[in-house]
């Protein structure tokens, strides 16, 4: 009876229920696990201690990634049976590899080289076994279809860029979690419109996990950081969303987003990519040092230096990013190179506005 039910089950008929169940499970698992995780972290002294470049004071548990990982895995394991299990299980395998690498880095210290190899392995296996990759740029700069190995190499670069972008922006309370939540909701809507229900449910699971995490991350008494175990898992999932959305849009002649998917993705990820590319330029070109060396040159550090609180910094950055998503959605029917120009100009102006105003005022 159960077998017949699953064989005749059409996820499109029950999207709302699947989303609600996934969010509820992830939310419940997260809220149930965090008090225990905080208690263990305090007893075992597994804490992030403030230093010369920290934007917080005191010691805070940095094992929030455990709750994020557990809630996503449980939610997908329960709701994923009638969905596209091959892709979901490969995604779960990838986040498991990155979770344990990140957890080791949170508790001990893991070299950037080992983290890089783990990220490369997780992304490569997913690309090869699902053949989900970025084929071209939908005509941006005249590029449509890339040769196979160039496509694979570029897709790997996209995975590494996004994973490390979310790792690098995790420096202000609520910022990485809020941007990941915004991205998950945005991609969830896009996948729903594209009828990719497996990704809708995965996005719902991430959303539930992050709502619970942000409650503790923004708490004064029971504060918790996500650590590398959380930021790498979230970065990997957002990268999966990115590649899958562009791949599906470019592969279908009837897709609503065939001529705009790369621009919509850039809009969703504008701040993480902007800050990462900016910080790499400053470190490599100006300071002549490793792009992975720590410093206080992130955009969120600039907001803090202007007197913004952590919460105000997060709200301003996320609000601007949401505005950029709406701008890109509004112009998605025009020629794609013009879409790119409008996005880049809009993003540059909006993120520079306050700094220009403060400079003129002084």
Automatic annotation (TrEMBL):
Presence of keyword Iron-sulfur:
no
Superkingdom:
Bacteria
The way this protein sits in the membrane is described as: Multi-pass membrane protein
Determine if Protein transport is one of this entry's keywords: no
The UniProt transmembrane annotation reads 14-42, 63-81, 87-104, 116-134, 140-162, 174-193, 199-218, 225-243, 263-286, 307-330, 336-357
List keywords of the entry alphabetically. Cell membrane, Membrane, Transferase, Transmembrane, Transmembrane helix
Q: What is its main location?
A: membrane
Q: Which GO terms describe its molecular function?
A: transferase activity
Q: Which CDD domains match?
A: GT_WecA_like
Localisation: Cell membrane
Descriptive protein name: Undecaprenyl/decaprenyl-phosphate alpha-N-acetylglucosaminyl 1-phosphate transferase
Its source organism is Winogradskyella litoriviva
């Amino acid at each position: 009876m159960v077998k017949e039910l699953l064989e005749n089950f059409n996820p499109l008929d029950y999207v709302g229920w699947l989303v609600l169940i996934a969010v509820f499970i992830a939310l419940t698992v997260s809220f149930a696990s965090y008090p225990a995780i905080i208690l263990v972290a305090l007893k075992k002294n597994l804490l992030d201690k403030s230093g010369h470049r920290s934007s917080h004071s005191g010691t805070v548990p940095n094992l929030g990634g455990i709750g994020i990982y557990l809630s996503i895995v449980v939610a997908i394991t329960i709701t994923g049976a009638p969905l596209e299990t091959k892709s979901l299980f490969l995604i779960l395998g990838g986040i498991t590899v990155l979770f344990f690498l990140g957890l080791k880095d949170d508790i001990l210290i893991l070299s950037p080289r080992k983290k890089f190899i783990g990220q490369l392995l997780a992304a490569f296996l997913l690309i090869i076994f699902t053949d989900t990759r970025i084929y071209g740029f939908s005509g941006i700069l005249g590029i449509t279809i890339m040769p196979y190995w160039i496509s694979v190499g570029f897709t790997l670069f996209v995975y590494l860029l996004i994973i490390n972008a979310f790792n690098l922006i995790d420096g202000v309370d609520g910022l990485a979690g809020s941007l990941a939540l915004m991205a998950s909701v945005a991609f969830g809507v896009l996948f729903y419109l594209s009828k990719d229900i497996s990704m809708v449910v995965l996005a719902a699971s991430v959303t539930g996990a992050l709502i619970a995490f942000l409650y503790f991350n923004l708490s004064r008494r029971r504060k918790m950081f996500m650590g590398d175990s959380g930021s790498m898992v979230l970065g990997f999932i957002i990268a999966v969303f990115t590649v899958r959305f562009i791949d599906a849009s470019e592969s279908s002649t009837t897709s609503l987003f065939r001529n705009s998917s790369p621009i919509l993705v850039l809009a969703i990820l504008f701040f993480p990519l902007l800050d990462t590319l900016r910080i790499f330029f400053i470190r490599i070109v100006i300071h002549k040092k490793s792009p992975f060396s720590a410093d206080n040159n992130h955009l969120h550090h600039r907001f803090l230096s202007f007197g913004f609180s952590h919460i105000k910094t997060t709200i301003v950055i996320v609000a601007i990013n949401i505005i950029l998503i709406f701008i890109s959605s509004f112009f998605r029917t025009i020629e794609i190179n013009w879409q790119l120009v409008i996005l880049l100009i809009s993003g540059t102006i909006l993120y520079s506005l306050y700094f220009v105003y403060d400079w003129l005022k002084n």
